[in-house]
Design the sequence.
């Protein structure tokens, strides 16, 4: 955006003034400020998304909000240009009606917003749909690696360790989150790092599964829920209150069919039995084991079924064994004995995803910090989960391509890797552009007012070149952030990444991106430093001005169980 495009401001008495009426200038400033608050708040939430576990739906939500804000940013620029254009036409005595002016400006802004929305959507979808099988597979592995860094299971050389021996404090910081936003796409698209991602895939997958489930405590909670479900079944089993409705239904159907066959053998149907034969029919039905009432009629199916259900219930109560989940077991076993029955254990193993033969206790001590539970159950569960999911990560590249078995999973992974850096870059471009525009809108009337009271050379320079200050300020900040360092950018791991990206292409599709690796890393450097200063303010704006609006992403917290039962 240049000063000539923005303004062509009126100059009278050597003082440059805004071509817009004062109310329009205030209106544009207010809209721009509102947009900036939303954009900066979105920026902070985007970093929150990067620093935690997120779902594909949450990534989609954030992408849509980011795309909406980018469309609004473009529409606001057009609004400024359109209002200036109308003002210039008025100075040339080209008059437009208020309705025509308002309609034209609104249509132009809506058209610009719609085109921008679809252009960004097209760019992202094109990158995702045309991404190679290798990029999709590496995106999955890069996400696992990223999550291991966040959880402290992986460390990068040279970055300070926290009190727990990990680097979680670094990765939960704004600069760390900004670096993590870009890291997966760098690792996924540069061949040199593919072997690193593959070699740690199994351990990273194990750590990721554990983190998603809330670690040992999260799995302990799942065990408690499974045990409570078994205990409800046990209470019904012990008190002879098991649901035998399915057994009764089968017996009712069999008995009714037997009854109908006996009638057909005599040339009768249930609906045409003469009344004089009612007593005989009742007697025959009772002989078949169905104790119907004395006033039962041959066509009364409900009464017949009730009699069968009564018989089934009596037989159930009289038995010394009971069929539980298809397996016959003795009645009234103690809780511990019942819990250790193979039919119960098998059900628990299926619910908790445990290997065959793994014994599940009815209680685990809490005074050992759940060490026994972690050793016997949690480790076995993770082994089984990894065994189930690892083949997908190691599947052929063709399976991630169009029509492949893992196409959808690969596309979701590619989207999760592409969206954060793209959204972050567009967010920063929009915020910086409109910050410059806001400063311009403030400086022109402010310097004009100051000069009308007292002449000043510095103020006059600002008045005649109002874009110099905002552009110089933003450029100075970008240069400063590019030259500054933090614990990440001075680490040996970062230097290795920097050396590896020299001259490297960023390949998402078969055609490399126009940005090379070192250029993208320069952006990462500046953004990482800048976010450490801007994030607290952005987060404050989101929590206060926007009332904590989450932009489609809710922070995940794992509940800690209160105790053993």
Sequence:
């Amino acid at each position: 955006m240049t000063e000539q495009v923005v303004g062509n401001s009126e100059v009278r008495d050597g003082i440059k003034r805004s071509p817009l009426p004062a109310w329009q200038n205030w209106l544009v400033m207010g809209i721009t400020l509102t947009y900036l608050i939303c954009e900066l708040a979105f920026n902070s939430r985007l970093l929150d998304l990067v620093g935690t576990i997120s779902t594909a739906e949450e990534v989609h939500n954030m992408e849509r909000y980011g795309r909406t804000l980018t469309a609004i940013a473009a529409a606001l620029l057009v609004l400024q240009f359109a209002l200036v254009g109308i003002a210039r036409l008025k100075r040339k005595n080209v008059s437009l009606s208020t309705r025509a002016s308002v309609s034209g400006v609104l249509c132009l802004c809506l058209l610009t917003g719609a085109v921008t929305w679809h252009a960004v959507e097209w760019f992202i979808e094109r990158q995702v749909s045309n991404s190679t099988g290798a990029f999709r597979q590496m995106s999955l592995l890069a996400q696992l690696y990223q999550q291991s860094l966040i959880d402290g299971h992986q460390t990068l050389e040279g970055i300070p360790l926290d009190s727990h021996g990990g680097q979680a404090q670094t990765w939960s910081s704004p600069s760390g989150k900004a670096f993590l936003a870009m890291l997966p796409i760098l690792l996924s698209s540069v061949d040199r790092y593919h072997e690193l991602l593959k070699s740690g895939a199994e351990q990273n997958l194990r750590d990721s599964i554990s983190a998603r489930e809330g670690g040992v405590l999260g799995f302990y909670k799942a065990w408690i829920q499974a045990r409570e479900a078994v205990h409800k079944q046990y209470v019904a089993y012990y008190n002879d209150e098991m649901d035998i409705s399915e057994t009764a239904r089968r017996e009712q159907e069999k008995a009714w069919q037997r009854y109908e066959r006996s009638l057909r053998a005599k040339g009768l149907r249930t609906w045409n039995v003469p009344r004089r034969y009612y007593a005989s029919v009742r007697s025959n039905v009772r002989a078949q084991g169905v104790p119907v009432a004395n006033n039962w009629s041959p066509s009364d199916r409900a009464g017949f079924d009730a009699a069968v259900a009564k018989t089934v219930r009596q037989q159930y109560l009289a038995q010394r064994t009971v069929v539980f989940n298809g397996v016959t077991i003795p009645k009234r076993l103690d809780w511990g004995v019942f819990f250790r029955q193979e039919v119960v254990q098998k059900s628990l193993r299926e619910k908790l995803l445990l290997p065959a033969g793994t014994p599940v206790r009815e209680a685990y001590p809490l005074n050992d910090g759940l060490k026994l539970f972690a050793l016997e159950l949690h480790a076995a569960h993770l082994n089984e989960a990894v065994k189930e999911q690892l083949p997908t990560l190691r599947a052929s590249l063709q399976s991630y391509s169009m029509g492949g078995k893992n196409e959808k999973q690969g596309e979701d992974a590619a989207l999760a890797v592409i969206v954060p850096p793209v959204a972050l870059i567009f967010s920063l471009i929009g915020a910086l552009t409109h910050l410059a525009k806001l400063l311009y809108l403030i400086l022109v009337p402010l310097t004009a007012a100051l000069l009308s009271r007292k002449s000043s050379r510095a103020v006059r320079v600002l008045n005649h070149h109002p874009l110099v200050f905002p552009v110089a300020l933003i450029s100075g900040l970008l240069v400063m952030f590019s030259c500054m360092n933090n614990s990440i950018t001075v680490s040996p791991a970062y230097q290795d990444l920097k050396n590896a990206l020299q001259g490297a292409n960023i390949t998402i599709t078969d055609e490399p991106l126009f940005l090379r690796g070192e250029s993208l890393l320069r952006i990462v450097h500046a953004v990482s430093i800048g976010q450490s200063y801007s994030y607290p303010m952005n987060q404050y704006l989101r929590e206060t001005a926007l009332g904590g609006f989450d932009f489609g992403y809710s922070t995940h917290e794992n509940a800690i169980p209160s105790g053993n039962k």
In short: The first strand starts at residue 10 and ends at 12.
